[in-house]
Amino acid sequence: MIELRHLRTLAALAEAGSLTAAAARLHLTQSALSHQLKELEERLNLSLLDRAARPPTPTQAGRRLLELANRVLPQVDEALADLRGLAAGRTGRLYIASECHSCLEWLLPRLRGYRDRFPGVELDVVLSASLDPLPRLQEGALDVVLSPDRRPLPGLEWTPLFDYEMRLVVAAGHPLAGCPAVRPEDLAEQTLLVYPVARPRLDVFARFLWPAGVAPARVREVESTAMQVELAALGQGVAVLPDWACAHGVAEDRIRTVRLGAADGLTGRLHAAVRGAEARLAHLAGFLDAIR
């Protein structure tokens, strides 16, 4: 029954003090403003303005609506400004989680450049959501999930980012360090350092060891990529990590990496999942461009 234009009309009348000045403020003719006011009075079956007074003053009903206008219109204007900022990429929220534990080594440096382009976006990497982030993405608690495991889930849109190779990480003096490639059975006597996630989600099991009917001698769960590299460098086990996650240790000559299997080795592809309804938001599209 009551529209925002009606509230804006009453607010303009109260501020301007006359129909003529209010009409000019609203970019309307005086006749159009009077018609709008009369239309609202007919809807409410109440007089909102004492036209006999000079200048015209609000009636009791008019004052009540003016109170509403003074409370609601600033909130509406603030929300509209936020929405314009969201459409232009000036504002927004970007909560990121990753199913790829080693991704932080690669992601964090790229966020610095993104922050320069989108300084008004609320940005956070939600480490607590790394174990099962996709349901939280669907619910709206997260905005982007990085995952090597693309799954067809309702409402989500997936963007391929890049391909990578999984490499066996060993100490520089490890017996496997000089091999051109390792076979599944080469890991049968090794302590395998892995992330604390379900085994079927680990490529080294699902795509390398299990198809060959091989199990490592021992499995040790280690939460961080950096700690896996350090333990491997100390000869406390071997790890399987993306090539870019171990480049720093290789450069420092603390570890060696070896291809898994023959031919092209064990490769993967990293994807970014977002809610399809929001995939075209400027700050989300800008993030995908920054990390692709």
Structure description:
With about 290 residues, this protein is α/β, with parallel strands linked by helices. The chain folds into 3 domains: about 5-90, Orthogonal Bundle (Arc Repressor Mutant, subunit A), CATH 1.10.10; about 90-160 and about 270-290, Periplasmic binding protein-like II (D-Maltodextrin-Binding Protein, domain 2, 3-Layer(aba) Sandwich), CATH 3.40.190; about 165-270, Periplasmic binding protein-like II (D-Maltodextrin-Binding Protein, domain 2, 3-Layer(aba) Sandwich). It is about 40% helix and about 25% strand. It contains 10 helices and 12 strands. It has helices spanning about 5-15, 20-25, 30-45, 60-90, 105-115, 135-140, 205-210, 225-235, 245-250, 280-290; strands spanning about 50, 55-60, 90-100, 120-125, 145, 155-170, 180, 190-195, 220, 240, 255-260, 265-275. Strands 3, 4, 5, 6, 7, 8, 9, 10, 11 and 12 form a 10-stranded mixed sheet that branches. Helix 1 (about 5-15) packs across helix 4, helix 2 (about 20-25) crosses helix 3 and helix 5 packs across helix 10. The two termini are about 50 Å apart. The mean pLDDT is about 90. Keywords: DNA-binding, Transcription, Transcription regulation. InterPro entries: LysR_HTH_N, LysR_subst-bd, WH-like_DNA-bd_sf, WH_DNA-bd_sf. GO terms for molecular function: DNA-binding transcription factor activity; transcription cis-regulatory region binding. This is LysR family transcriptional regulator. It holds the Pfam family HTH_1.
